[in-house]
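Milestone M4 deliverable, item 7.
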Amino acid sequence: MKDSADDMTHDSGNNDASHSHQPARDDALLNAEAARALDAWLAAHAAGMQLHSEDERGANVHSLMSMLDGVSMEGRDTRIERALDTLAMHGAFDQHDDDVFKGPALHPLDDDALYALMMAGFAPSRVPASLRSRAHKHVALADLVTEADVPAPSTRLVDRAIAKIDEAQNAVVEAEHIEETRAGWFRSRFRLSDIAGIAAMLVIGASIVIPVLGHFRREGMRLACDNNMATAGLAFASYMNDNADKLPATPQRQQRTWWNVGSPTNSSNSANLYVLINKNYVHIHDLACPCNDHARHTLPDQPASDWLSDPEVSYSYRIVAGVPATDQTAAPRTMLLTDRSPIVTKNRRGLPARPDENSEQHGGRGQTVLFGDGSTQWLTSPILNAGTPNEDNIWLPKSVELMLDHLRGRQDRLLNGVEAPAGTTDNFVGP
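Output delivered:
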């Protein structure tokens, strides 16, 4: 008891000298009966009820608490001091009441401050000045429990998920709306007759556009072929300038079958044209007509002196086999090269042919020819100088042309592949 009083006196002296005259109260606790009376009054007061007790302690508690009503803050502080003094004088505090509390206890001043804080509605400013600092500490401890910062759960993922769901639903609704709008617009705007009219317009447009496109394609191929002829003309000029104005020819000049392309004896007339390729006067690609699907555009793997087969040959060259060396020159209007002869192509296979046919390489519309002066010309007929005494069929030698009077209008085999031109003025090409 004395030790407790000494502790109380020491703490009181450090905090507030005003309690040095109240040793009986400073280190005391409410006894069990007083505590029950106070609890009963607090419960009734919290429930808004008026407590009437015949118990002396209950009456004392009610009397003491009623003293706090209707007074100012300064008066209330004074009355709380008086109430605590009165409780101490009447033995309401018991220093050793094990029935009330067992175990570690608050310092008496902290206990007083806590009760005073409760009586003041947990407002430290309404607690008596002597206990106010301790009341603030009680409030601070309570705030650690009741006002701890707890991070709110993040709703970012949830919000994003909901936004995505809403976006997908809106997209579906919008797509359905657009589809319904299109369907409704189509049903309302178009009838079967309208669709038929549009189809007819498309057919008419296609019938106009497709031929035009075909014409441009054919014209492009013709121009490409004309360019090949011009390139070949430069090659002929270079070769003849280097070879005493002689046309390209292999050493084999005796008369043999000149349409056997790829013959190992180099008897084909195409082998004579191939001399320009072997001697690098022209590239094999420049002697490939764009209309010939079988034309060779690259040199074969093994060295060659002729095209490997007849379909690879695009252009028919002036026949030089069986022609005297003195006649193997080119006058300015001597034809040197043209699109592949249809007569040779058919007669070689034993098929009849008409002498006035055009080359098959341009769909039978005509052929490009190269003359000795390097000029080119598009011919829609194989007859040069038609209707004049100098009329000349580029597909036939003069000897065969003389027999055409009784063959006129007939389709027959005209060549055997061994014919030769009648002279420098006789234009005759192959194969």
